[in-house]
Design brief:
Length: 445
Amino acid sequence: MTNHRPGCELAGLTYFETAGMTCRCERSHVPEVFPGNGEQITLRRARITWAVDIEPRRVVWAWKDGDHGRIPAGSLSIAAGREGTGKSSFGLWEAAHVTRGTLPGSLYGQPARVLYVAVEDSWQYTVVPRLVAAGADLEMVGRFDVVNHEDDEISLSLPHDNDLLEQTITDYGVKLVLIDPIMSVLGDSINASRSREVRRALDPLAKIADRTGCLIQGIAHFNKASGGDPSSRIQESSAFKDVPRSVFVFAKDDDGRVMTQSKNSLGRDDLPSLAYTIEETLISTKEGTTTTGRFVFTGESDRSVSDLLRDAGGDDQTERDEAVEWLVDYISSNGGTANAGEAIKAAAGVGIAKTTLTRARAKAKVRSEKSGMHGGWVWILAESMSHGVTEPPRRIHEEPEESIFPNVDSSVPSVDSSAPDCTECDHLRERYGDHMRCWQHQEAS
């Protein structure tokens, strides 16, 4: 009840009936305590649970390596690395062992169902062949799709589809969910470079894992940052390493492949790195045999992912060349023309920074044009770069491939990395003599 002086016309009414109205005697105090404009509102209140009333529990490990745990059950985990390092194959290694009940840890001896959200890879040509090679029980692996009321397939979007995901996990007794890549299921309203916004998707996901006891394994790409901590290279936001209970990073060089656990919130943070290989494996199909990759651990490694990244050298040039190859591949797969906004989003999804993408566009001589009077901007690939490319290459394993694209002509104008983006088409302005102007609009700045 609100406090009003006797005789006040509002005396005796509840707060919900008087929110926003004040007695003359209380006019200076009520708005601070009961804000509102006459509508019914729900008050926030504090709730305290004393530690003595909370039962301590032993950590349950979904994956144990000997006597030490690597991934807690009922948690969010991230596996990250550059393209082709084998992180997706690691996820399928996990899936195969969970379906067979052979993963060392709490699920050992208890075959369980797995859900897989594969955004980039084909199920027919990539996912199922790899599952077969890994020895998975295919009857225990489900492709998780979201459909609308007309049964049209739409993309999983977090946090919008959190309730749908949690209900499916509960209904089918799922113990592992793979999301590959996790960046691609963030809702359109989330800015992937802002940690607070990314946490709007990841924090509830971690709570779903905790409530259901299901391990949720996200696959992520490295960004183009440099530094000693590999986990700082995960995507564009620190939330991808801050929210998960465990983080694994992957790298390779001429001497082999290495997986390092860079975060283990509930266990030892000094566990040894593990060496692994991607073995070429033959599997049978109705059309005959085909090859795919199989993830195999080969023992402990005296090198870490930090060592491999530090020794790599020439990162900037390599990253730009990789971005050029990706961009040419992406636009070619769209018939030589791609929506600029969609291309930028797709590039971010595979860890290509916007500045790197801009320089890749310049090197590949990708031009930007307005699509009609009211259309958006599109990127068009130079004919010399698209020759002979009619569809994106199908990768049946994560080994590096030789570039199928010719060397780029050096006649493209040099890009000044300090120059501001063009306000018209988002191109990086380029230097022509003493002037800065957009390659497309030739506007003097």
